[in-house]
């Protein structure tokens, strides 16, 4: 029998919190319908070998880029060279060794799909959307319910007629409300998606204003748009997009070795896959001057590039290689493999944790490889930010972009895990977008003038797709004025007795912003191995969020501090992340949220903040 005993001052508050939790649980249970991707223990049989193929049983059979969306793996099947039609394929990859197709969408809207060079995701008003390239422009699909996605918006772009490199929607970059689409010889299209059901073309920027070359790959990063040519002599440019629909040219670099595509990596680097064996690394740390860092002659016909941690992955025509960039002046190939199929194209590569998906648009089979041995245990980290730390004079219309080290679990992106606020103030609402390890935010209203803002990512909240969370709190400050001004806050020592039932900070204690810094009582267990809490353990089972479930065993009361005890129903799984417990006889994961809420309340009662 479930029993609850509260300290008297806490009873009324907990009743309110319990009601709030019962409401919250429904939304949380709907928020993660998919099982996610399994963090397998990669051995020699999987290391740079195709251990699981992803194939269509009928035409089209080629794939390019792929994403994890709402706990499922998704890719687009389409013919090579930009031709239609396309299919959407969604897989359960909880065991990546045996991908299980759970949804396949053909006909209708997908008849105009072309090969996808990007699948950017947006979180707008609580719904998740993906932008798809078509032979006429772009479509926007609602993937909030990933097993029943639907096209909710589309836009035909002037001059786009289904070409391969010209008259084409070749790649897109979604940054807040703005969707940037490269059109080859048509330049760049700027689309407003604040209402994703009614995307509106704001501007078409001709190539004469963007660097003088046809535009393929493009990456929106804060107030900058980094672009390049594709499948021709190398050409690059950086545009100022502080006024989103009026990009202006800051710098360009042309007459470089023949290349196919680029990706933007940490520390303002542009990595280029060269068609004649050149692997180029350029810097745009000074956006007004693109400079060559290194041309490493690693050989073969390279097509696409992707980054993860301190590595660059290059999909070449005949194989895929992993390049260690620890010393960027001496890049080293540390792994390579091939599909083992006739007429392959290892072009567009998507690293996810210790796995890499090889998209083969020649249609002879795409597959998962392992690119490292063992499980993925590398914590997520921040690699670059736009604007830079402590930047001043940032425009009120700025967007924020943060380049992460690995593929982010976009289901973890929300105002609790990625907080944008005036320094010491309340979070502000806006639109979050994500692609190619880059997370961006656009506020619903412009930033105020002469004010300091901060981006706060608490430890243990945001994680990669494998469940490895950010280990340390991250804070980025910038100002729309001439200086960084932070409230003079200080935290006094606790005045009440310490809570029982766990070491201080165990189990994901309360997070409190102090002068723009984050003080955390210990991050919840996110994305790691299961925690087993037995009897009175509150530091384990009760505060686990994300990743593998934590299980509380035994019938001894669980102490959560502040005089609150409860005895969970025997045998119930106390799974972190889920919130379905509504009463005796149902799953008791809801107790975890109730306990966490009460623990947070106790922590807040014990903490006093004084502002100077």
Describe the structure.
By secondary structure, the chain is mainly β. Among the domains are: 1-31 and 487-612, no CATH class; 382-485, Immunoglobulin-like (Sandwich). The protein is 7% helix and 38% strand. The strands form eleven sheets. An eight-stranded antiparallel sheet has the order 10-9-8-7-32-33-30-29, with no helix packed on it. The longest helix has 24 residues, at 8-31. The N and C termini lie far apart (50 Å).
Keywords:
612 residues, mainly beta, Immunoglobulin-like, 8-stranded antiparallel β-sheet, 7-stranded antiparallel β-sheet, 2 helices, 38% strand, globular, disordered N terminus
Q: Poorly predicted ranges (pLDDT <50, ≥5 residues)?
A: 1-29, 490-612
Label the structural class: mainly beta
Please state how the strands of the largest beta sheet are arranged side by side.
10-9-8-7-32-33-30-29
Distance between the termini: 50 Å
Largest sheet: 8 strands, antiparallel
Shape type: globular
Describe what is shown at a glance.
This protein has 612 residues and is mainly beta. Among the domains are: 1-31 and 487-612, no CATH class; 382-485, Immunoglobulin-like (Sandwich), CATH 2.60.40.
Record the SSE blueprint:
Layout: E1 4-5, H1 8-31, E2 52-54, E3 63-69, E4 72-77, E5 87-92, E6 100-105, E7 121-124, E8 127-133, E9 137-142, E10 150-156, E11 171-175, E12 178-182, E13 188-192, E14 200-205, E15 218-221, E16 224-228, E17 232-240, E18 248-265, E19 269-274, E20 278-283, E21 291-297, E22 302-308, E23 311-316, E24 320-324, E25 332-337, E26 348-352, E27 355-359, E28 366-370, E29 382-386, E30 400-404, E31 419-422, E32 430-435, E33 438-443, E34 452-457, E35 474-479, E36 489-491, E37 511-514, E38 517-520, E39 532-534, E40 551-553, E41 558-559, E42 565-566, H2 589-606, E43 609-611
Parallel strand pairs: 39-40
Antiparallel strand pairs: 1-42, 2-28, 3-4, 4-5, 5-6, 7-8, 7-32, 8-9, 9-10, 11-12, 12-13, 13-14, 15-16, 16-17, 17-18, 18-19, 19-20, 20-21, 22-23, 23-24, 24-25, 26-27, 27-28, 29-30, 30-33, 31-34, 32-33, 34-35, 36-43, 37-38, 41-42
Helix pairs in contact: 1-2
